[in-house]
Design goal:
264 residues; mainly beta; 2 domains; twelve-stranded antiparallel beta barrel; 12 strands; globular
């Protein structure tokens, strides 16, 4: 009797499988077919340590440029960037650079429509101090709009504009101090191009002129060229130019080094 029941059970199971025209689904198959849940937040960390050293028999000249950046992106609607940069250098034992900048910026809708031109909104607050540009301290805060020309995995270009409030303490050419405030128009072009997942060219260029005085302007240009060694390590070189018209000061920096670039 047991043999008959077992035979009937096996036969029914086989007929059911054949009727469905597919083999029975195992636990392993169910797990393998389960769709992956994409995270709604992405975090990006990068650190660039670069510099240049020139040593002779009786002297040494060096320049170090360090940048630490953290980015949080919430789906396609919101992005928050915290960027810190420190440049330090000497020439013939004399201090040439001791410049620090910290920028906190948010973007709304930047990646909302990657395949088409679209408008998004930004806001920022920054603090700067620069020995080479004769800036004791500078605080900037503002907001505006930007146009994303294209925003793809290997090519990005956007243009932004908007007012920023500037509160500064400066050292003028005659060595006197000036504490003042003004409202500036902040115009920026930012770009990033990646060639065959190997070579990366990226940068941002700012022009910030005062609404009340056309001769009072700030220029900041930063261009980086990186060669990828693996997913998180790159050889990098950078060219930076800064000009602060009010103090009649400028600097041009060229450095090379390593970049750690990690998404998680």
């Amino acid at each position: 009797m047991r043999q008959i029941l077992l035979f009937v059970s096996i036969t029914c199971f086989s007929l059911t499988a054949l009727a469905q025209d597919k083999p029975p689904v195992t636990l392993k198959d169910s797990l393998a077919k389960k769709p992956l849940v994409q995270p709604d937040s992405t975090y990006h960390f990068s650190f660039v340590g670069s510099g240049a050293i020139n040593k002779s028999a009786n002297d040494i000249t060096y320049l170090f440029n360090n940048d630490l950046k953290f980015v949080m992106e919430q789906d396609t609607a919101f992005a928050l960037t915290f960027d810190n940069n420190w440049v330090y250098g000497t020439d013939h034992h004399q201090l040439t650079n001791n410049d620090y900048a910290s920028v906190l910026q948010f973007d709304l809708g930047r990646h909302k429509n990657r395949n088409h031109v679209h408008v998004y909104y930004w806001g920022l607050a920054s603090f700067n101090t620069s020995y080479s540009l004769k800036v004791n301290d500078q605080f900037l805060a503002g907001a505006g709009a930007a146009i994303s020309i294209f925003d793809r995995a290997h090519a990005k270009l956007n243009i932004s504009d908007g007012p920023v409030y500037d509160q500064s303490d400066l050292v003028l050419p005659d060595s006197s101090h000036l504490s003042y405030h003004t409202v500036r128009n902040s115009f920026r072009i930012a770009f990033k191009f990646e060639i065959k997942n190997l070579l990366v060219i990226e940068g941002s260029d700012f022009l910030q002129n005062s609404f009340s005085d056309g001769s009072d302007y700030i220029i900041r240009c930063n261009t980086n060229l990186s060669l990828k060694l693996n997913k998180w390590l790159e050889l990098t070189s950078s060219v930076v130019y800064n000009e602060f018209k009010r103090t009649q000061s400028s600097n041009l920096l060229f450095t090379y080094g390593l970049k750690i670039d990690k998404y998680f």
